[in-house]
Amino acid sequence: MGVDPGLSATGYGIINVAERQPLLVEAGVLRSRDKDPLETRLLEIHRGMTEVIREFAPTVVVVEELYSKYAHPRTAILMGHARGVVCVTAAQAGIPVVSYASTRIKNSLAGHGRASKEQVQRMVQHVFGLRQAPHPPDVADALAVALCHHNVLMHGCLSSPPVKSTAQ
């Protein structure tokens, strides 16, 4: 299960990797209302993630490593809250969490770590044989994270290992 944590929208993508070719099982987005207090929004993410985990029973949750653009530190902090909820929810269910840097995810799908969002979305579309790129972008990003982990397991596409932790 790949997850793209966000306070307003948390994308998730469930893929089946029993075969060499990954299959798209389910993808969606969990939304919180901007006007709600932070703790209410985080609780909504927790409830939504708990529901998805109960329904699909993933064996691993994969997220992007945290990074901060100095121009937008508040955004990084808020994303960190959402990411923390995702990690705690997975830990409560006994599911390991694996993290990859965004450049590793892009490299795994598009062949280089500086790929644009559009290039990554097109690769996700191509891998799953979709008529159009998954929408909203949070869903495409979650599927990209899941595909990155699949590629690492199947093909060893990364030069450095993933970070395995539920505390990141």
Automatic annotation (TrEMBL):
Catalytic activities: Endonucleolytic cleavage at a junction such as a reciprocal single-stranded crossover between two homologous DNA duplexes (Holliday junction)
Subcellular location: Cytoplasm
Any one GO cellular component localisation term in the record: Holliday junction resolvase complex
SUPFAM superfamilies hit by this protein: Ribonuclease H-like
Keyword Nuclease: yes
Signal sequence region: none
Key words of the record: Cytoplasm, DNA damage, DNA recombination, DNA repair, DNA-binding, Endonuclease, Hydrolase, Magnesium, Metal-binding, Nuclease
Binding site for Mg(2+) 2: E64
Residues the record lists as binding Mg(2+) 1: D4, D138
Catalytic residues (UniProt): D4, E64, D138
InterPro entries: RNaseH-like_sf, RNaseH_sf, X-over_junc_endoDNase_Mg_BS, X-over_junc_endoDNase_RuvC
A Pfam family it matches: RuvC
Tree of life domain: Bacteria
Cofactor: how bound: Binds 2 Mg(2+) ion per subunit.
One Gene Ontology MF term: DNA binding
Necessary cofactors: Mg(2+)
Cross-referenced NCBIfam families: ruvC
Family: Belongs to the RuvC family.
Quaternary organization: Homodimer which binds Holliday junction (HJ) DNA. The HJ becomes 2-fold symmetrical on binding to RuvC with unstacked arms; it has a different conformation from HJ DNA in complex with RuvA. In the full resolvosome a probable DNA-RuvA(4)-RuvB(12)-RuvC(2) complex forms which resolves the HJ.
Function: The RuvA-RuvB-RuvC complex processes Holliday junction (HJ) DNA during genetic recombination and DNA repair. Endonuclease that resolves HJ intermediates. Cleaves cruciform DNA by making single-stranded nicks across the HJ at symmetrical positions within the homologous arms, yielding a 5'-phosphate and a 3'-hydroxyl group; requires a central core of homology in the junction. The consensus cleavage sequence is 5'-(A/T)TT(C/G)-3'. Cleavage occurs on the 3'-side of the TT dinucleotide at the point of strand exchange.
Official protein name in the record: Crossover junction endodeoxyribonuclease RuvC
